[in-house]
Amino acid sequence: MWQRIKTAIVLVAIVGTAMFVSRLPIFFLPLLTLGVVIASHEWTKLMPKLQYPARFILLVTVVTLVSVAMPQTWLVWWAVSVVIWMQAVRWVMVYPSQEKWYGKRLFLMGVVILTSTITSMYSLWKLSPWWLMYVFLLVWCADSGAYFVGRKLGKRKLAPNVSPNKSIEGLIGGLLTSSIVAFFVGYYFLPSGMALLAFLILAGVTTLSSVLGDLFESMLKRRAGIKDSGSILPGHGGVLDRIDSLLSATPIFAFGVWVLTSWGVLPVLENFHH
Questions:
Q1: d(CA 205, CA 144)
Q2: Residue 249 in contact with residue 210, Cβ under 8 Å?
Q3: Mind listing the pLDDT tens digit for each residue in 213-230?
């Protein structure tokens, strides 16, 4: 437990420093690059064995960095990732009776999921580091709420073949916890009732998608026969184990913000100031 706490403290310090110390991407972008290199390496362990795993790592890293430099590609990556996550709902629910996603599809999904995650993180950070921190906080609070409510009240299993410890009661607890965070942030920063309602709905969708990301990675690990995606983070496992919820939550939140601002429901999110 102490090892897990110590690792978490170091992680928060590193990520927080990279996010807030400068508005130039001189610290944050190298951190994202390191993250995608490690995450893509871990993804190769979740796929059928590759002859040249280094090629996949290089491909994902290059595609991600090129995409970060080309904002006109971001929306495409996020939209495609939304399609993948919509399909993943069924994959998680029917596992292990169907595994159509396993095989070459995992190669392409890895490219899309990792690229959409990094570009959405960078996009939100460019708006304001606080908007990215808001998504982190939303996911962490949902995870904590689900854990404590699930421990006390959890009876009905959410996806027993993928993650036996997760319960429907825990999911509801996580939704309530994240909704409280979203309400206070939205109430303070948004001008109208309609905008606040849309912001709360987006928070709910983001929270649900974070649970899906967690379940999806658990399913991949079960299929691959491994407990953790890696061992680089003592007490936590690998990078994918730490960011599994963010793989889905961050691009879905970024895509949702774009949709709602395009429709005029939300004002354009700018710096995190009143």
A1: 17
A2: yes
A3: 999 999 999 999 999 999
